Amino acid sequence: MKLSKKVWLIVIIVIFAVVLSILFALYFRQAGERDQLNERLDRAQTLLPGLAANKESLTDQLAQAQSSLNTSQEQFPESVESIEYDDDLFEIADDCNVVLNHVTASKPTNKTVGTVTYSVSSFTVAVAGGIYDILEFIYAIRTGDDFSLPWSAEVNGVNMNIAAGTANINLIIYGYKGG
Prior knowledge:
54% helix; 2 domains; alpha+beta
């Protein structure tokens, strides 16, 4: 079967029309994508200065936080060792003119606050002396002025016998564990 020239011409025109419509569709789709990308680029360029300033601000905050962390870490020893604190307690007692009759320490445990881990020990200290001297001893422990080690103590409770001139003092001592 032989096709006429008219049929061949129509087939070629149809093929040409299909190819042209495909090319136009691709062109318009790519033009739409290009427009969307240009809009996104414009928005990104608009946001860039603000984000750069925000990054700089956050970098400054990070540096300040790191400095604060380093300063805080320097205030605490690497671990809580009760013998080291016993030495400090005896020295403070001697400075305050009280006698340490008994010191009991618990095994240190870890306590995490945020990203910082502390070693925590509970102490019970029995002292004897004058009432003023005992109060001075409690104050010295609470304020930490006489500590040779960078540790922090919290006076948890005091049971005083004024007539006997004795006191049992419950302490919690915090030490920085490092990290």
